[in-house]
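Following up on my earlier thread - several people asked me to post the actual chain instead of describing it. Fair enough. Here it is, all 291 residues.
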Amino acid sequence: MSGVGPLTALVAKDVKQLLRDPRSLTMVLLMPLAVMAMFVSGYGEERSEVPIVVVNLDRGSISWQLVESLRSSGSFKIVAYAATVEEGTELVRKGAAYAAVVIPEGFSDSILSGRSTRIVTVLDAAYATISELVWQSAVIATQIFMKRASELYGTFYIDVERQTVYGPKVSSVDSFTSVIMGVLLHLVPMSLIAVSIARERERKTFEQLIMAPVSSWHIVFGKFIAYALVTVADMVVTMAFAVYALGVQVRGPLPALLAVSLLMLLCSLSVGLLISAVSRNQLQAYQAAIF
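Reply from S.P.:
Thanks for posting it. Predicted structure:
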């Protein structure tokens, strides 16, 4: 029991320190509410119909019944009918739709003959969550169609295959590499520059830097450029490792990727500077940067 008193005193001391720091207390209390509000606003709405393209190479009556089953499922909105697979794939690549559903030639004949057949969903793997949702919805709609059509045409089976506009398949490494790059360009520079200035302020070295024979713009841009170089080096190393070690393929022009990455880097560093200006200590800076 002798250790309960000191432990209680330490707990009370830390609680009082937290209550005396309104910025940290506000961050602790509001961060969960803000995160939940963002998730609700992003995922809480009713699911809308996903735009797709239909490529009906069969053009038989049964294939059009399948198209109607897809349309009436409530999951899809058919925005275009393409004449060829290449045309449908190009529409997906341009962003006109999230997927193209390809019904091959001989589809109706295979069903009338009781043979197995297939349809192909060409997905945009850049939207990993949506592409998975599209494929699952296509499978469900096809199963409903098979159940209804089997009463009219006998037993048959339709296999729902999936491909991507980037090739037969996209690995999980290809999918999460872009996420890692985004997190790297967002959190790393923001956290580094925010915590760095807060650390100098706590150690009283920031005042010495201000008294040096340099202007405030030199101080700001010195910090800015230094951490920009560090983050760009991290980005290049990560991208090189993904491409040469993990075999990730980069689609699209490399200058455009670098331009977007640099723009995101500048925004993250700017927000980090703003956080450092309003933070009194490293804890506040770290909490705000992670948030």
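The chain has two domains: 50-164, 172-290. That should answer part of your original question.
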